[in-house]
Specification:
about 210 residues; single chain; about 75% helix; Tetracycline Repressor, domain 2; 2 domains; mainly alpha; Arc Repressor Mutant, subunit A; disordered N terminus
């Protein structure tokens, strides 16, 4: 292996070690209580390496989130594209099933809930820029698809309903069954099916937002 290839491999390994350590500490302690020094120590790298690769603690948090969310969004967009090119008329159900499809992956479910819950628990000044960076394209694509199959719903109202849908999704990712019911993979899977039904009922109604006009 060439010296350049060895250097590139070492750089990539260092970056991944920092991301792994940062994810663990951010989820466990939160953004404010986690220092770059603590992350460097956990990763067993020089503190300067965290600045070199990520620039700042906010940059590192954004990179941690991007690493886990990019595969989710890729699956969502691939699923939506298949629907759009299948020749079969789309429905609200088929669109939502494409949106929630990534959560059928055990690998995704093993890493996403804690990170999503922690980020949404951070102040909006920290969380919202990251969320907008990661989800704006996906949100716009899915809202556009939903608008086509739900012409009775005003676009502004649809944005609010989609926002509420995301809140419901976050809830089941963080707490995977109702209080008093044990959480299992089966209860989570059934919960996701119920979530689709719940969201469709809210999305399809024509007059929910009229009183707010």
């Amino acid at each position: 292996m060439s010296t350049q290839a060895t250097t590139n491999t070492g750089t990539a390994d260092t970056r991944e070690k920092i991301l792994d350590a940062a994810e663990l500490l951010f989820v466990e302690h939160g953004f404010a209580a986690t220092s770059l020094r603590a992350i460097a120590a956990k990763a067993d790298v020089n503190l300067a390496a965290t600045h070199y690769h990520f620039g700042s603690k906010k940059g590192l948090l954004a990179a941690v989130f991007h690493r886990r969310i990019q595969p989710v969004n890729t699956l969502r967009l691939e699923g939506l594209e298949k629907l759009e090119t299948s020749g079969v008329p789309m429905t609200a159900r088929s669109i939502l099933e494409a949106f929630f499809l990534p959560f059928k992956s055990a690998d995704i479910i093993s890493t996403i809930p804690g990170l999503v819950g922690r980020l949404h628990g951070e102040p909006e000044s920290i969380s919202k820029p990251i969320l907008e960076e990661e989800f704006t394209e996906v949100t716009e694509r899915f809202q556009e698809a939903l608008a086509m199959v739900l012409p009775q719903v005003d676009r502004a109202e649809l944005r609010w309903r989609f926002h509420f849908m995301i809140g419901s999704m976050i809830q089941i990712l963080r707490i995977q069954s109702p209080l008093g019911i044990g959480s299992t993979q089966e209860s989570f899977n059934r919960g996701m099916e119920r979530l689709v039904d719940f969201c469709i009922a809210g999305l399809e109604q024509a007059d929910l937002g009229k009183q707010h006009d």
